Amino acid sequence: MPSPFEFPLLLVLLMTAVIHLVEALSYSVSFVGLKTRRLATAGTLFGMVLLVSRTANMVQGVLLASIADDTIRNELAVDSFERTLRLVLLAATMGSVCGALLLPTFVRYMTKGIEVFVRYGSYSGLIGALLRRGGFSREDLGRVTKAFSPPKSEQVKVTPFGAIPVWFYVVDILVTAIFTVGVISALYAGVLAPDHRSATGQMSGVVNGIATALLFLVISPRVSNYVDAALADPAKIHSVRTMAVTLVVGKTVGTLASQVFLKPGADLIAALARWL
Questions:
Q1: CA-CA distance, 123 to 177, in Å (whole number)?
Q2: Is the pTM of this model over 0.90?
Q3: What is the Cα–Cα distance from 276 to 263, expressed in whole angstroms?
Q4: For residues 208, 212, 214 and 219, what is the CA-based torsion angle, rounded to 10 degrees?
Q5: Residue 70's Cα: distance from chain center in Å?
Q6: Which end of the chain is more exposed for a tag (fewer CB within 10 A), N or C?
Q7: Which pLDDT tens digit goes with each residue over 216-270?
């Protein structure tokens, strides 16, 4: 197993944490959009943050595949590779936890960011204005620091988690676990069945396809209903906030649950690849 302090694995862990941090923060975008009455602008502005996640995802995939190749080429212990993957899943959990802790701060930053974005109308206008000013001033950085707002226990206590059905929590956790472990289990299966690595690699798409179907059939419709209701009646915006917090909690638990699915998922994918 590569040391956690070796650069390739350290970078994989960092990229994984960033990916799941951004995904956790994404659940609050609808709430911010409704709060500012700028739902489309909130999505556009978050696209810049999402670019960071997509770039990190590409780097992570390449490095993980390289570690798998080294394991097969050098005939390293499979157990060692499994421990490496479990570290990656742990990084996913840590990224989700950081996202949950940064949620109130992110809502503040996004709210202010939307105001500034609307003023200049585009990324180019925003960057141009920043360059004309000579970049960020000390006062700007001070305002950014002051806007930091860690979660408060009162915020958690007043969140009506009971308004969300139990089955929704269960499905959300299951979908998150499958998404988190899908590609990683396929990589593990490629090490277990090196002669069928092309097949195991393609099966990650099948696994994620199942999770995507559950997402669009079960999760997305309910989230959309909450957002549409809040659009029609602004007094219901707190239900969107509750849904965002619920999804973040489900994501965190789901990344933990992915540890359980790693080995069985890899064994199943490897067995199917050999059979096909």
A1: 35
A2: no
A3: 20
A4: 130
A5: 27
A6: C
A7: 888 888 888 888 888 888 888 888 888 888 899 899 999 999 999 999 998 989 8
Query: CA nearest 14: which of 45, 6, 261?
Result: 6
pLDDT for 85 equals: 92
CB 258, CB 89: distance < 8 Å: yes
Q: Which of 41, 49, 39, 40 is nearest to 106 (CA)?
A: 49
Q: In this predicted model, what pLDDT tens digit does every residue of 68-126 receive, in sequence order? A: 888 887 766 788 888 999 999 999 999 999 999 998 888 888 888 888 778 877 777 76
5 falls in which pLDDT band (50, 70, 90)?
very low
Question: How far apart are alpha carbons 43 and 30 in whole angstroms?
Answer: 8
Residue 50 CA: distances (Å) to CA of 15, 47, 53: 13, 5, 5
Q: Burial letters for 175-192: b for 16+ Cβ neighbours within 10 Å, e otherwise? A: bbbbbbbbbbbbbbbbbb
Residues 269, 185: contact at Cβ < 8 Å? yes
Q: Which residues of 72-88 are buried (b: 16+ CB within 10 A; e: fewer)?
A: eeeebeeeebbebbbbb
Q: Which candidate, 154, 173, 149, 42, places its Cα nearest to that of 101?
A: 149
87 contacts 4 by C-beta, under 8 angstroms: yes
